[in-house]
Structure formats: C-alpha cells, structure tokens
Amino acid sequence: MLEASSLDDGWQLRHGDRRLPAVVPGCVHTDLLAAGVIPDPFLGRAETEVAWVGRREWTYETQVSSVSSGHEQTDLVFDGLDTVAEITLDGRLLGRVRNMHRAYRFDVTGLSGALAVRFVSAYAEAEAVRGKVGDRPGAYPEPYQYLRKMACSFGWDWGPTLVTAGIWRPVRLERWSTARLARVRPLVTVEGGVGVVELRVEVERTRVEAGLVLEARVGGRRARAEVTGTQGVVRVEVPDADLWWPRGYGEQALHDVELTLHHGSAPLDVWRRRVGFRSVELDTSADAHGSGFTLVVNGERLFARGVNWIPDDVFPSRVTRERYRKRLRQAADAGVDLVRVWGGGIYESEDFYDACDELGLLVWQDFPFACAAYPEEQPLRSEVEAEARENVVRLMPHPSLVLWNGNNENLWGFRDWGWEERLGGDSWGEGYYLGVLPRVVAELDPTRPYTAGSPWSGSWERHPNDPAHGTHHSWEVWNRRDYAEYRSEVPRFVAEFGWQAPPAYATLRRALPGEELAADSRGMLHHQKAEDGDGKLERGLAPHFALPHGDFDRWHYLTQVNQVRAVAAGIEHWRSHWPVCAGTIVWQLNDCWPVTSWSAIDGDGREKPLYHELRRLYADRLLTVQVREGRMVVAAVNQCGDRWAGTLRLRRLSVEGEVIGSAELHLAVGAREVGLAPVPAGLEPDGPKEFLVADASAPLRTGGADTGRAGGGALRAVHFPAPDREIPWPQPEFDVSVGPDGVTVVARTLVRDLLLQADRLDPGARADRGLVTLLPGERVTIGVRGWENPDAAAARAALHCQEPPR
After folding, report:
1. What are phi and psi of 351, to 5 degrees?
2. Checking phi first, is residue 561 left (phi over 0); if not, alpha (psi -120 to 50) or beta?
C-alpha cells in the first residue's frame, strides 16, 4: 500500500547569512514576522516597510533522510509552491516550477540529503515574461497578469501589496510499488432517480505486466473493473439515493466513496472522497426580457442569495480549516446560499469546499483571471491549461460546486476600458475564456455548466455588461451614481455590486495603534485602497445625511448605515423582480486584512451592520416597499417551498408617532413567488414628516436573530419617502437596561437605525443584530456575548441612532 509521510517539519528559511525557522505550509512574510525581522504589515503603515520582501530571492531548506521502505518508487510531492522556484535534492536539480495554482511531483527514488527550494522574486519573473510577450493593460499597475499567482497579493482596491513566496501548501514523501492512482475523475449524476458515480481513473505504473483491478464502494454498493494499460472506469449505481440540496431547499446528503487499486488481492492505493447526488443546470434561454441566467438544482429554479469571496488572508496559508468553517458558517447564518470564489484569488483548499458541501452553500468558481489582459503566449499558455485540468479534477467531487466561470471582468475590460485599442491585436485572454477553459471543462467535467466570464452577456453581439443578458456588475453605483439608481434597472443576475464602509471600531483601534482616528488620518487613508475611496464615501453620504465634519464617531456610524441602505436598496428591488432577476452576489463577504472596504465581515472577523442586514435581506421571506409604475406597493418575497398566507397590516405614521391611517390586507403568496400589494389610497406618506410601516405575519423561516421583525413574529418593512437629511427627526428618547439576555432598549419616541457597537464595550464582544428601528413604546433586546461586566451606562454610550440635525 502507498505510504505517505509529511515533510512539513524541519524547514529553515535562508535570509542572507542567517537561517531562520520556517513554518511549512507558510510563506516568507509569516516566517520573517515570527522571527521579528519585519513588523506586522497589517498595523499602521508597516505594509510599505516590508515591500522589499517581494523583490528578494528566498531559499527554503531541510534534510531528507534515506529510508529503506521496501517500495519501488519514492515521490516528493508539493501541493503548492508560490510561485517561481527551483528544487534541488542532494545538489541534483529536480525541476523548475512557475505556477502557484498547481501541485508538483518528483521521482526521488534512492535520493536523500539537503532539499532546497529556491524562490525567484515574483516581480523579476513577471518583468521577464513581460519583456518576452510584450506589455498588456490591467486595472492596476502591478504586473500580476504575467505569472500564475494569486493576483491580489500584488494589491487591490481593498488589499495590501504583499507579494508572497513560499511553500504554501503541504509537502510529503510518497512511497509505492507496482502502481498508484495518478488521477481519479468522479462523474456524479442522477439518472432516473438513481445516483451514479462513474470513476474515470488513470494509474502510474512501475511494472507494465501487472494486472490491476479497481474496486469502488458507495452507499453500500460496490463495483469492480480492470485497468487497461493506464486507464480504468468503474461505475457504481445507488438506487433511491438521497439528494444533496442547497441550504433552504433540503438536506445536504453526502455519501462516502472509496476507490481501491488492487494487484491481485493486495491493495496498492486508495482514494476517498464524499460526493453528493444532484443535478445542476444553467438556464440562459431567451425570453421577453432578454436572456436569463438562472441556476437550476435538482429541477428547482433558484434565486441565488450570494456573496463574493476573496482570500480570507493575504497570506492564505494562515487560513485554517476552523477559520474557513467559521467564516462560511457566518455566511450561511446570514441566509447566503451561494459563494462566488473570485478570480483574483486562488482555488481554495479542500477545507473550504468541504464546509460548503456540509453547509449547503453553492460555489461559483472563477478561474484565476481578474481585471487585466492576460498574454496567451508561452510560458503562460501551457501553465493555464495544466492548472485548469488539475483543479477541475481536484474539485469535481464537491456537490457544492455548481458553476465554472472563465474570468472576472476581462471581457468587459476589453470592450470598455480601452484595452482593445492599446492591444493592437495582441493576445489578451479571449482564447482562454472562449477556447481553452470551456474545452477543458467540457472534456473533464461535463456535469457542470461553464460561463466565459463575469460579467458576460453570452455573445459579442451584445455589450458584455448588458443588464438584460446574462451576468451584470453594477459599479456605476458607488463609483459615480447614488444607490437609489439600483432601482432604475432589473438585471438578469447581479454578480457584483456593493458599497463601502469602515471596519469595526475595535478593528481600527488594533490596526492603527496610538493614532487619533479621523476619516482622513494617515492610517485611515493607508487602510483605504480604493481610488478616491473617501471621496466616494463622502459623496455617497451627502444626498442622505448631514455630513458629520470632524466627528469621527458620527462619520463611522453613518458610513456603516449608508452601506446597509445601499445594499438593501439593491437586494430588495432585485428580489422583488424574481424571476426576471435570478440572483444577487454582494461584493463582498470578507476581508484579507483590516481595511475600509465593501465587506460585511471585516479583516478581524467582526460583523459590520451590513452582515446583520443580510440576514433580513436574504431571509426566506422578505417584506419590502417598492414603486411600480409610479405607485407604491408592498412586495412579499416568498422563497419558501410552501405558500405564505396571512395578514398584511399597513400604517401611515408621523415621525412623532401619530397614526394617520391604517389598513389590513389579506396576504397570499405562492411558493417561490413574489406577491405585490398596492398601498391603498390615503396611506402613502406625504412628505418628510411621514412614513409607512408594513407588518406581515409569517413564521420564522431562518435561524438566528429576528432581524427585520416586529413584535409577535411579524416581518416588517419601514419606508421613509424622503432622505434622512430632510426628515425632522425627534430627539431620540429611550431607556436602556442590561440583563442576562443582553441589552434591552425601550423606545419612548421613534428611534431610527439604532445600533449597538458591541466592540466598544469590549474588543471581544459581539452583538446578535445590527440596525433596528423602533416605534414609540416598542422594545428590543440585543444579545451580547463576550462582555464580562455588563453596565447600562456603558451600553448607552455604545448606542447610536439617527438624530436631529446639529
């Protein structure tokens, strides 16, 4: 049987004449940081102090002992090398590598001694390739498109420039005889209610004459097949197999697969994975509105409630299995059912996809190309195909993976960002997105759909970002337009949109030690990577709020409120237009360091108010006030599999709390449908002193706090017809008490956008909800954990809400 032994221990990093302890998996930055050679680049402006690290050569060294195992062959296996390296053992060159996204295997039979991995500077390699293939345009000045490396390590509009090098995934020795399983490609389908696993296998042999047999076991069933040459196929059928469903639609049934390679009665190698039986289609057919983009799982058409995922740390080797699970659990708890792995990052580890399988989170997987023209000449072209083939096969077992996507924004960039003229006919990646990648997916993984890019309208006959066709990225809003403009169109699928806000207060305090916080302080500006980011934050506030000049706490609160308002404006509008619009993917779930960004969870893992708002916006049932053809309606969005029937109560109120008018309507919405109820005449608010409250009875369908609910378990929508800056808010009055359940607030006036910033009570404290609006006499209890000494006065000081203009 194949024997594997880890080589993760005992490494050293050569730093000039010094040798430092090295952690594998890891990278140069984390080793230098552990040794005290560099400051923490996440703190203050230390990022600039460590820029030299990415421009140096580095060597990792260890010893490989001679071990007599009785096996015929010994392989040295690297699961990931970042990025351009030369590997030697006992002074012999084993090979040269140039792709972070691939694994590498070297025959080291009979060898022992000093093992060295010498990494070339990624900058030096990128510049050498650029000199060979010519210049290509990109959204950022760094040369990330010239090598197969995580693009965002060169910096992004939310990330630092920390160009890594190192052995970033595990390394081991594998000893084997006769044959081993070189590649297993599982095609998992459902045929007439029967779950089918067809395992297409390639083996590597030391002896051609040996007779080999494959045996597979799935769900109590087994099958055998002979290996012919180096190929074999074994098929297992599981009658009446339980299906795997995305969260909210059914259970996540997973089945263990075990494949064993035998020589006679002796097992030689074994491959184990979990699979899920499910079908997936992508409906892009034409209709009266254009051409759609609807995911269909097990025959069920879905409105995708998505988030974009970036690497959770700019040093990916620091992201543990537990951290993946925590972050993805946060996503699931917020009502998310789809995670898009964005193309400027990496193919994530098995831990990521395992968690998605178990949590019922659909995965949209970008191939790693983002925001640049990518040369198609060598040495890149062969690397791209080899990388795609390896990772398609590696990720195939995961039922959560439902879509392959060719790139992020490159088709759009070619058409709109001046690339076509600058390129003058040079290659730029189209051959990858419309040629190599769809061919690889069709050959290796025909069970899943492929789309050429995001955004992509499906054809060059249309604009790549045409909202009426395929996927759409909505970035005119935020960059140039107010978020009210989200309501001006109904894209078929919104794959990117978002609004910035700073991280939590405690995150800023840790990241900017000793700094007097201000919106434009040196540290705050350094941790704002978007072009004119603070200018866009201020211009985004101006139509809605009185600008809080010089008051950091107020600015911090209002920018977070504005992020919530912006994302809510988009999702409420687009969900109310299901099935024309079939999904939204918020930019973005997470951060890779402490920064002002579009994230719902900041770089220290703290939830912003947006995170809690997503729990309302992505709940199975959503109530929202919209305008249709100039008339106000209440939209009841029912994504449940059963009918929603109950009473809709409407109230027109003044900001002083007076009820001006009310009505009750019968609510009846079918499963997976949207119902529209026109607001009766006389109940529409008239001017900035009035607002509309809609309450609908509905059982709680998703776990967690009852964000967005009124008393008695009802869903609530609150609609103010005027911008906040025009509303004559009453001076907010409320009582605060603390108890074992948390902080209780009882409103004596209208209290709009009440927010408890729990991290101001204690850096480790967390609140279970974000923004809350209370009518006079209403109360809310905000659960707080991690606060050891509850105090009502401290709680009151950590509460913010809308106030009259100062």
Report:
1. -60, -40
2. alpha
Phi, psi of 535 (to 5 degrees): -65, -40
Q: For 323, phi and psi rounded to 5 degrees?
A: -70, -40
First to last CA, the chain: 76
To which residue do tokens 């209709």 refer? 287
List alpha helices for 187-337, DSSP H. Answer: 321-333
- Of 805, 703, 795, give the one whose Cα is nearest residue 754: 795
- Write b or e for each residue in 585-618: b if 16 or more Cβ atoms lie within 10 A of its Cβ, otherwise e: bbbbbbbbbbbbbbbbbbbbbbbbbbbbbbbbbb
Q: Which two tokens stand for residue 351?
A: 């831990």
Catalytically active residues are: 409
DSSP state of 315: S
In sequence order, which ranges of 396-521 are alpha helices (DSSP H)? 410-416, 419-423, 430-431, 437-444, 476-479, 505-511
Neighbours of 90 (CB within 10 A): 15
Show the tokens assigned to 178.
């006769």
Q: What is the DSSP string of 757-793?
A: -GGGT-TT-EES---EEE-TT-EEEE-EES-SS--HH
Span 521-551, pLDDT tens digits: 999 999 999 999 999 999 999 999 999 988 9
In 441-501, where do the E strands start and end?
Answer: 450-451, 472-473, 494-496
Q: Are 290 and 256 in contact (CB under 8 A)?
A: no
Beta carbons within 8 Å of 412's beta carbon, 6+ residues apart? 453, 455, 456, 464, 465, 473
SS3 label, residue 675: strand
Question: What value, to the nearest 5°, has the Cα angle with vertex 34 and ends 29 and 36?
Answer: 95
Specify the DSSP element, H or E, that contains 123: helix 122-133
Task: Phi first, then psi: give them for residue 522, nearest 5 degrees.
Answer: -60, -45
Average pLDDT of the segment spanning 53-60: 97
pLDDT at 601 (0 to 100): 98
Structure tokens at 262: 């035998």
Token pair, residue 14, equals 């050569």
Structure tokens at 577: 């237009």
Enter the tokens of residue 200.
């297409």
What tens digit of pLDDT does each residue of 99-124 get?
A: 999 999 999 999 999 999 999 999 99
Fill in the DSSP letter of residue 489: -
Residues composing the chain: 806
> The whole model's pTM is what?
0.96
In angstroms, rounded to a whole number, what is the distance separating the alpha carbons of residues 107 and 376? 30
Determine which helix (DSSP H) or strand (DSSP E) holds 176, and give its type and residue range.
Answer: strand 171-176
Q: For 689-734, what is each residue's pLDDT tens digit?
A: 999 999 998 654 443 334 444 444 579 999 999 999 999 999 999 9
Contact assessment for residue 496 and residue 475, using Cβ atoms and an 8 Å cutoff: yes
What distance in Å separates the CA atoms of residue 485 and residue 566, rounded to the nearest whole number?
Answer: 10
C-alpha span between 30 and 624 (Å, rounded):
47
